[in-house]
Amino acid sequence: MPRTPEQLHSLPEHVQEARTRSLNAISKMRANGVTLYSAAREYGVDPRTVIRWGKPALRKRKNGRYAAKRTDRLLRVLNIPAEHGAREIAILDSRQASEVGKYATAVQRYLATGDASSLRPFQGKEIELADGVRFALLTRLKDLELLGSAGVLSFESLYSRST
């Protein structure tokens, strides 16, 4: 189980992709209460692969079926806006990853509509990175506009990809 971005990026690309799909399936299970099989099918991954990569985030019920725990400490490497462009960050807390996801949605909404109201809850907020460092979320509209117009911010996927 990778615990650092370096360990994660050293895995073959197809393994990283399977792991990312597995994390997405677990998030779907957690958010929507769907079964492991249903979530795995939606993300195009074998349920055994989800169990392999996400076992710490799953619990086996008495009936033998898996359910997602409320939180987990699986490594997630995410792309996030920073002052000088997008930055790759490592997070070990599913709650922090959810917060980053909400923030990314707010940034995307602002760039698409010009409505900054969804960014207000993130002003002055910080997230804790895997190494314990606190990272302030960028909410200065001028900076976000500049990054957006430069094409630096792409939210096709929040998860980082190694290339």
Question: How would you describe what is shown here?
Answer:
This protein is of the alpha+beta class and 163 residues long. The chain has 2 domains: 5-68, Arc Repressor Mutant, subunit A (Orthogonal Bundle), CATH 1.10.10; 76-149, no CATH class. Helices cover 42% and strands 16% of the residues. The chain has helices spanning 5-9, 13-32, 36-42, 47-54, 94-113, 141-149, and strands at residues 58-60, 66-68, 76-82, 85-91, 126-128, 134-136. Strands 1-2 form a two-stranded antiparallel ribbon. Strand 5 and strand 6 form a beta hairpin. The longest helix is centred in the first third of the chain and has 20 residues, at 13-32. The mean pLDDT is 91.
Summarize the structure.
The protein is α+β, with helices and mostly antiparallel strands and 163 residues long. The chain folds into two domains: 5-68, Arc Repressor Mutant, subunit A (Orthogonal Bundle); 76-149, no CATH class.
Topology:
Elements: H1 5-9, H2 13-32, H3 36-42, H4 47-54, E1 58-60, E2 66-68, E3 76-82, E4 85-91, H5 94-113, E5 126-128, E6 134-136, H6 141-149
Antiparallel strand pairs: 1-2, 3-4, 5-6
Helix pairs in contact: 2-3, 2-4
**Head-to-tail CA distance between termini:** 20 Å
**What would you call the shape?**
globular
Number of strands: 6
**From the alpha-carbon coordinates, what is the Rg to the nearest angstrom?**
17 Å
Order of strands in the sheet with most strands: 1-2
> What is the chain-wise order of helices and strands?
HHHHEEEEHEEH
Report the average pLDDT across residues: 91
Instruction: Output the number of helix runs.
Output: 6
User: What's the helical proportion of residues?
Assistant: 40-55%
Strand content: 15-25%
Major β-sheet annotation: 2 strands, antiparallel
Stretches with pLDDT under 50, minimum 5 residues: none
What class do helices, strands and sheet pairing give? alpha+beta
- Number of domains in the coordinates? 2
